[in-house]
């Protein structure tokens, strides 16, 4: 990674006061623009960042620095805001948002990177100079110098000391909203593992490695082995050894994709829950953007099954079509409301993947701003929709068919809550399958999965995957 000092670039501007101020290094400017857009226009960092990096013409090292700075700052924003409040002696609400963005970016560099202190302070102050008054520039300089005089551990201690309760301390120090801390603890507690909470919150704050899936039947084992070290659990996954994942994907013409190991296991749990019979009909009910649809299409092709993918949001349905392009098999893409498919196509499918729209609280390491955007109100609306989609899927299943209910959230209102509700409504025609036993039959190494085995909850801190939930259900 670049040290961010900008060494070797042309000299700075001479200001009227006679001091020399340096221009902001492009990687830092890109990170600052991303933070502003996320705050100001609800942008998604993972979508915006590649465009901004390209537009700024950043090389590999600077692109990595811009990514680390923007993702790291967004993830740890909750903690940095407490640090800034202590250092500034005023609430963040009282600081001009563009100035606050620069302070957050500066705090991240000072407390969590090896960027030299003078570069972190001076360039953050330069960013403020570009958007605010002279007094704001002096204020930012003072706050950042105060932050720079103490270590991360010291700031963690002081932030913890100021907390109003133990949950508030954990929320502040680990930079998660307090309600998210509570729901994550509840889900771990249900497994008798509440003691893992801080390890989970830490894992949410770490950048995940790039993980690849080698689609079965589309790439031979020798070529797959060259992608990088085999995943610990997924039999078809590899960690990217080095290089640009897009270039690797292009080289393999659709046979290789970026996909979290947990997502691979969720799709395989459905396709490998029972031997595939020629001519089976499969449905991916909520398919956008199509990662699991591509894997299911490859699995269906090997077993002689037919897949239909459904995604009601047209732009996302286009992404599904694109994701399916590299799999040499015909997959119709419907654009229907999944809640109506059960009535429109009753008793039609042998297997259905219901990868439900959810809060995404299981993928916080991947979507750095997501934790600040969700609220408990979202859970109520989503779990109602998840229940309707569940009912629709049960109706659309043939007798004997299998449903995989999946979320990338461990929130119990979206996981076991929805499944229990479904069983209460449909208990005379559906029953749990032994999901843990199915998944254990797929993985390369044993998974540590407490509970009765009727469902599977994966975790970033324990398994290195997103926190995917999987429940296999069979219709009688
Ligand atoms: C968690 S994502 C699915 C991810 C996908 N399976 C993959 O692996 O790429 C949930 C999807 O459900 C879609 N969705 C939202 N409401 C829906 C509905 N009423 N019926 C079907 N799909 C819906 C969303 O647009 C979103 O694309």
Automatic annotation (TrEMBL):
Domain of life: Bacteria
Catalytic residues (UniProt): 408
Ligand binding (S-adenosyl-L-methionine): 286-292, 311, 337, 355
Enzyme's top EC category: transferase
Domain SAM-dependent MTase RsmB/NOP-type as annotated: residue spans: 180-476
Organism name: Luethyella okanaganae
GO molecular function: methyltransferase activity
Enzyme Commission identifier(s): 2.1.1.-
Keywords, comma-separated and alphabetical: Methyltransferase, RNA-binding, S-adenosyl-L-methionine, Transferase
Protein name in UniProt: RsmB/NOP family class I SAM-dependent RNA methyltransferase
Any single GO BP term: methylation
InterPro entries found in the cross-reference section: MeTrfase_RsmB-F_NOP2_cat (IPR049560), MeTrfase_RsmB-F_NOP2_dom (IPR001678), NusB-like_sf (IPR035926), NusB_RsmB_TIM44 (IPR006027), RCMT (IPR023267), RsmB/NOL1/NOP2-like_CS (IPR018314), SAM-dependent_MTases_sf (IPR029063)
């Amino acid at each position: 990674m670049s040290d961010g000092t900008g060494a070797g670039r042309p000299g700075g501007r001479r200001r009227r006061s006679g001091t020399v101020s340096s221009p902001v290094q492009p990687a830092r400017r890109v990170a600052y623009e991303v933070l502003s857009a996320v705050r100001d226009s609800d942008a998604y960092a993972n979508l915006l960042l590649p465009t901004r990096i390209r537009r700024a013409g950043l090389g590999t090292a600077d692109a990595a620095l811009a990514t680390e700075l923007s993702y790291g700052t967004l993830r740890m924003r909750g903690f940095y805001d407490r640090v800034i409040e202590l250092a500034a002696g005023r609430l963040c609400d009282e600081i001009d948002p563009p100035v606050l963005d620069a302070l957050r970016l500066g705090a991240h560099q000072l407390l969590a990177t090896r960027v030299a202190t003078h570069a972190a302070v001076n360039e953050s102050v330069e960013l403020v100079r570009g958007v605010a008054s002279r007094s704001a520039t002096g204020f930012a300089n003072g706050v950042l110098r105060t932050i720079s005089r103490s270590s991360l551990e010291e700031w963690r201690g002081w932030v913890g000391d100021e907390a109003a309760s133990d949950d508030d301390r954990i929320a502040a120090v680990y930079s998660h909203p307090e309600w998210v801390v509570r729901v994550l603890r509840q889900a771990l507690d249900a497994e008798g593992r509440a003691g893992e909470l801080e390890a989970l919150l830490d894992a949410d704050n770490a950048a995940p490695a790039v993980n690849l899936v080698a689609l079965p039947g589309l790439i031979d084992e020798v070529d797959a082995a060259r992608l990088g070290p085999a995943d610990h659990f997924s039999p078809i996954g590899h960690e990217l050894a080095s290089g640009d994942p897009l270039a690797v994907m292009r080289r393999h013409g659709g046979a290789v994709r970026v996909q979290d190991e947990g997502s691979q296991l969720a799709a395989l749990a459905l396709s490998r829950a029972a031997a595939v019979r020629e001519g089976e009909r499969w449905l991916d009910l909520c398919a956008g953007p199509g990662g699991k649809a591509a894997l299911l299409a490859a699995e269906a092709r090997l077993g002689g099954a037919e897949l239909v993918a459904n995604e009601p949001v047209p732009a996302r349905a286009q992404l599904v079509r694109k994701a399916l392009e590299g799999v040499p098999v015909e997959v119709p893409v419907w654009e229907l409301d999944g809640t109506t498919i059960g009535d429109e196509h009753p008793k039609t499918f042998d297997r259905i993947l219901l990868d439900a729209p959810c809060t995404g609280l299981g993928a916080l390491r991947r979507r750095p701003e997501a934790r600040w955007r969700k609220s408990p109100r979202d859970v109520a609306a989503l779990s109602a929709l998840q229940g309707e989609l569940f009912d629709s899927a049960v109706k659309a299943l043939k007798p004997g068919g299998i449903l995989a209910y999946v979320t990338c959230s461990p929130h119990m209102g979206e996981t076991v809550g929805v499944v229990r509700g479904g069983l209460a409504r449909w208990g005379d025609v559906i029953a749990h399958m032994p999901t843990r036993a199915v998944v254990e039959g797929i993985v390369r190494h044993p998974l540590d999965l407490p509970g009765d085995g009727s469902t599977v909850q994966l975790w970033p801190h324990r398994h290195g995957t997103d926190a995917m939930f999987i429940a296999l259900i069979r219709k009688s």
